[in-house]
Amino acid sequence: MWSGAISFGLVNVPIKLYSAVSKKTVRFHQINGETGNRIAQKRTDAVTGEEVQYENLVKGYEMAKDQYVIINPDELDALDPEKSRTIDIEDFVDLAEIDPVYYDHPYYLVPDKGAAKAYGLLLNAMQESGRVAIARVVLRSKEQLVAIRPAQGGTVLMMDTMVFADEVIPRDALDGLPEAEELKVSEREVQMAQQLIESLVTEFEPSRYKDEYREKVLELIEAKAAGAEIVQQPEAPAPTAVPDLMAALEASLAAVDKPKKKASSKEKEPAKS
Question: Which fold has domain 2-23+80-163?
Fold first, then answer.
C-alpha cells in the first residue's frame, strides 16, 4: 500500500508497507423495509432543504452554537505535510516503556528489491538491543507517529501507527476511580487470586479466540436467506456484585480444580479389555 525507505542515520533501507490486519466486519446497507430498495442518502441544506452539490461543500468548525468558521479545501491542502517517501527515525526507546494505549494500527515492513542486507542489519541490531524505533511518516497526506519493532519470530519488522500524547485520556479525568485506601486487600486474598491466575495460565494461541458475535451474525444471515424461522434468544442475566470476595475466590479455585481431577482419574483407570 506504500513504498519508501526507513531513514536510519545516514543509512536508507528501501521498504514496502503492508497492512498487518484485515478487519472482518459484517457490513449492512440501509434498506426500505416496505419496498426492499436501498436508501439513497443526499446532502441537503438544513435550512432550505435543497440538495447541495459536492463542489459546493466546504468545512465548518463550530466555535459556538450555529456559529462556524468556514475553511475551504485548498486552505487545508496548504497545511498538508510535505509528501515524503521516508520513515524518519527520531529516537530509540525500550519496548517496556511504551504503554499499549498508544498503539493504533499494525503494518509489516518488507525489504524492497536489493535492500535485504540493509534491512537485515536494522532488524538484527534492533533485536540485539531490545529497542523500538520512534519515527514519523506521511501516510495518506497525514503525518503519523509510528513505532518500528521486530516481530515475534524475528524475521520481519513491524510498524505501528501511534496516537499522540494529547489524544490519550488522562486517568485523573475518569469518574468513579477508587481511592488508594479502597483498593487495599489482604495478603491472603492476593495469594488466592494469584493461585487462580496460575491455574488458568496457558500459552497464547491467537487462533483459539474467535469473534463469536460476528459468527452468529453470519449464521443468522445464512439462516434467514434459507428461510429458517429465527427464535429470539433470552437476555443474559445481569452480573451481580460479589458479596464475599474470599468465598468467591475459593469457589473459583474449586471450579477450576474439578475438571483437572476428573481428567487425572480417567488417565489412571485401567484399560478395558
Answer: Ku70; Chain: A; Domain 2 (2.40.290)
